[in-house]
Design brief:
The complex is a heterodimer of chains A (439) and B (169). Chain A has helices at 43-46, 55-60, 67-82, 88-119, 124-130, 132-153, 177-198, 240-243, 269-276, 282-290, 303-323, 373-391, 397-409, and strands at residues 4-5, 16-25, 28-36, 162-163, 166-167, 212-215, 226-229, 234-235, 244-247, 256-259, 340-348, 351-359, 365-371, 420-428. Chain A has 439 residues and is α+β, with helices and mostly antiparallel strands. Chain A folds into two domains: 4-40 and 394-438, no CATH class; 43-375, Cytochrome-c3 Hydrogenase, chain B (Orthogonal Bundle). A four-stranded mixed sheet of chain A has the order 1-14-2-3, with helices on one face. Chain B is globular. The chains are: A alpha+beta (439), B alpha/beta (169).
Chain lengths: 439, 169
């Protein structure tokens, strides 16, 4: 039986090496596979035997876009093993660093990676000619996030100032002076972002997802909270592995994560928003309402609006922290290694990032487990595509292909930061297929 | 010195020193930095787009050196004049993140922010593996490219105060 194959050899709007295969026979969708052929990276294996103090810097290298998330989850997990809790100004500074990363990452995704899909451009470059003001705004917002990570983290990518217990050095108050002014601009620009993206048109697409995110008694979650879902999950992060399982599937080098009881689930901005709308700052809530977004959003294509709302929140929160900036007594809390197992789960820009370490009496890592957000979303992405392709079977092939890519980008997948190719193949049976005419 | 006569010339070497031939641009930059050419700033970077656009803002003449991934012979040197040529997507090696030199050049072009003179030297690499060293042919290209850029710099330099003083002496 003949089949038709389309290949997109170069697409620079996902992080890492992956491909999508969609097989259609007649009017029947027979297969959807998000293949991740980024080689396994063995971080969990080479953390074994390393000193606890090296873990935040080693795991930060997993990703160039969200190194702060790796550092935060690692620090929290190791502090948990040592029975230490970092509070007060140091805790606030950690939230500030996380704000910086969210601002960088969301601005990049909203403006440079996802917006071109909605406006019908091949990429951000071609969009930038017609939408210069918007793209310049996006890049300037991103820069504000970079500035926070640079000052507090020591450098923009793979920051070097984070340690278990706190930081190596606390920047002086005046080092943040310029950032406060930039953040005020960025907060307004983030509100403008939400206005801009909420004017896009969105495919009518919803599924009955299980959203999973952290929830904290007072805060919109970055570093701490219980793990909740809209389908009844409510657990301490230490219970993560009792409820979630990672499985190897043949077509992907990234493990698929699922809830033992109910299967695939959804992490990231949409999950956070749906489970924590009431924890957003009043300004972020007002911005969301003004854009027409309710307190719950189940359309993954509208995640671009939610990222905008989280941009407002991150700017707002960073300003709150900086405006009442208090110097900690020391850059880091003293800690003594002790035998134990520690758990950390924080909200990376793309969703929950789980770390677990077992540490011996010398402070060396005996074993490690790391579950990044993208592996948790993989199955949900595939399921979205099943439903989306089935519902849009009659679209011209090119349009369908573009929309599949857009649907993947709803999740801002971060396969890795090493390379950035998505090869997409749609196979159709030509004989039974009218769609072939369009290809 | 800080004279208005000084040329605002900039050399930027792009790449990752830990990924074999990817780092060649930075080796060229290091070589040029060692020559202390008056009026010329030399920078090294991973090649992130917004950084590049800010780095070259206000410079009169900019020379960027980067590795090229191509089927051509390893060590081949290509020279692009950004004012004349559009950068093709696949020719220049992509930086480790989504937006690099090509995007910086084309965005700057779209927004009329290209430096008056922007010359890009691309050196065709062979191995971009983690921890690899420069390939022999790529290593040989380093002094060659440094010499060519130095020659271009001196040929195109606006009269710097120092040069005028030297002439007058």
């Amino acid at each position: 039986m003949k089949s038709k194959t389309i290949k997109v050899d170069y697409l620079a709007r996902v992080e890492g090496e992956g491909s999508l295969i969609v097989k259609i026979q007649g009017r029947r969708l027979t297969d959807v596979k998000l293949k991740i052929f980024e080689p396994p990276r063995f971080f969990e294996a080479f953390l074994r035997g390393r000193k606890f103090s090296e873990v935040p810097d080693i795991t930060a290298r997993i990703c160039g876009i969200c190194p702060v998330a790796y550092q935060m989850s690692a620090c929290h997990a190791i502090e948990d093993a040592f029975g230490v809790k970092v509070e007060g100004p140091l805790r606030e500074l950690r939230r500030l660093l996380y704000c910086g990363e969210w601002i960088e990452s969301h601005a990049l995704h909203v403006y440079m990676l996802h917006a071109p899909d909605f406006l019908g451009y091949e990429d951000a470059l071609s969009m930038a000619k017609d939408h210069a003001e918007a793209v310049q705004r996006g890049l300037r917002i991103k820069k504000t996030g970079n500035e926070i990570v640079n000052v507090l983290g020591g450098r923009e990518i793979h920051p070097i100032n984070v340690r278990v217990g706190g930081f190596y050095r606390i920047p002086r108050k005046q080092e943040f002076a310029g950032i406060i002014e930039n953040l005020k601009w960025a907060r307004d620009a983030a509100i403008e972002t939400v206005r801009w993206v909420s004017g896009f048109s969105f495919p009518g697409f919803e599924r009955d997802y299980e959203f999973v995110a952290l929830r904290h008694p007072q805060e919109y979650p970055f570093n701490e909270g219980r793990l909740l879902s809209n389908k009844g999950l409510d657990i301490d992060i230490r219970e993560y592995e009792q409820h979630f399982v990672e499985e190897h599937v043949q077509h992907s080098n990234a493990l698929h994560s699922r809830l033992k009881e109910r299967g695939p689930y959804f992490v990231g901005p949409l999950a956070r928003y749906n489970l924590n709308f009431d924890r957003l700052s009043p300004l972020a809530q007002e911005t969301a309402r003004d854009s027409g977004l309710g307190s719950v959003c189940r359309n993954p294509f509208q995640s671009i609006i939610v990222r905008g709302v989280e941009l407002v929140y991150a700017c707002d929160e960073a300003l709150r922290i900086l405006e009442k900036f208090a110097l900690p007594d020391s850059p880091a809390k003293e800690l003594e290694p002790r035998v134990g197992t520690g758990y950390g789960c924080t909200e990376a820009p793309r969703g929950i990032l789980y770390h677990r370490y077992r540490i011996d009496e010398r402070g060396l890592v005996l074993d490690a487990k790391i579950v990044p957000p993208t592996s948790q979303n993989q199955k949900t992405i595939e399921n979205d595509l099943w439903q989306f392709v089935q519902a849009n079977m009659d679209s011209p092939k090119d349009a369908l292909q573009r929309q599949c890519e857009q649907a993947i980008r709803n999740y801002d997948p971060c396969i890795s930061c090493a390379t950035h190719f998505l090869k997409l193949e749609i196979e159709r049976n030509e004989e039974a297929q009218e769609l072939g005419k369009n290809s | 010195m800080g004279s208005a006569f000084e040329t605002r010339a900039l050399v930027i070497g792009i790449g990752n020193l830990l990924r074999g031939d990817d780092g060649v641009g930075r080796f060229v930059a290091q070589r040029l930095a060692g020559r202390n050419i008056p009026g010329v700033r030399v920078l090294e970077h991973e090649g992130e787009m917004t950084w590049l656009m800010e780095a070259w803002a206000g410079a009169d003449a900019v020379f960027v050196v980067d590795a090229v991934s191509s089927k051509s012979t390893t060590g081949t040197v290509r020279r692009f004049d950004a004012a004349q040529q559009t950068l093709e997507g696949q020719s220049l090696r992509n930086s480790s993140h989504a937006f690099g030199l090509r995007e910086a050049v084309e965005l700057a072009r779209a927004w009329n922010r290209l430096p008056r003179r922007l010359i890009i030297y691309g050196i065709v690499g062979k191995s971009f593996d983690l921890g690899a060293e420069l390939s022999p042919r790529v290593r040989q290209a380093v002094p060659r490219v440094a010499d060519r850029i130095a020659a271009e710099l001196s040929a195109n330099q606006l009269p710097s105060k120092e040069r005028i003083q030297r002439k007058l002496a």
